[in-house]
Every structure is written in C-alpha cells, then in structure tokens.
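User: Um, what's this?
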Amino acid sequence: MSSGVILDTNVLVALVDQRDKWHVRASARVKTLVASGDTLIYFDVVIGEAIGVLGRRLEEQKRSHQFAALLDELNSTIPAKSIVWASAELQSVYTSVIDLVRQTNGVLNFNDALIAIAAREFNFKRIVTFDNDFDQVSWLARVE
C-alpha cells in the first residue's frame, strides 16, 4: 500500500456523530478527498478508539440510547474489508512506538504514536485530523 489518507479518530467520530462540533468540517473534508480520488484509510486502532469515544461521549451527554445507531453508522461507513490492521504489526514496531512517545515527551499518546509508526510502515504520507500533535511527526502530513 502506498497511497491514501488516514482518517484519525476525531474525524471519524465527527463523521458519524452529527452533534459533534467538527461534523460539518469533517464531512466537507472527506467529501473533498473522495472527490479528488483519494483513498480513505481506516486503521483498526482508530476504529477501536472511535467506538470508545462514542460510548463515553454519549454516556456523558446522556445520549446512550443513540449508541447502537451510531455504531451501525460507523460499521456502514467502514466495511470490514476496508480496515487496515495496524495492530497486527504492533509486536514488530512496539519499540518504535515507545520511542516516538518518548521523543514527543508524551504529546503523542501510545495510540497516536502507533498510528504514526503504522503510517510509516505502510507508506501512508497523510492523515486527516484536527489534532495538531501529529505535526511533530516528520513523515506524516496533517490534512485539516
């Protein structure tokens, strides 16, 4: 794999939750990318994190009754065959992930460092995110 743009958790959550503050921007950005022929990359670790964020957010906002519908929306947005399994590489890149967390003094958490290292391993060069922490990763361009 050598082309495509990774969707980060905050973009994925914003896509499926219309009440998210970034929903309009995320939707517009993704439409633009698709229209320009970009392939959207969904890492398994991003999907897992998005499910956790949705569950926690809906609980906090007393919208837990919406969880099943948003989970269905997430699953219909990302068919299993479209998932890139970054976690399958974790054992071989674990030391690199820890090193990146250390180099950024923890600004990149473990999951974000895994995303960055997996991007390098799979030769993906761009990530759509609202998180400027990825600006510290020289091999990954942030698309906001």
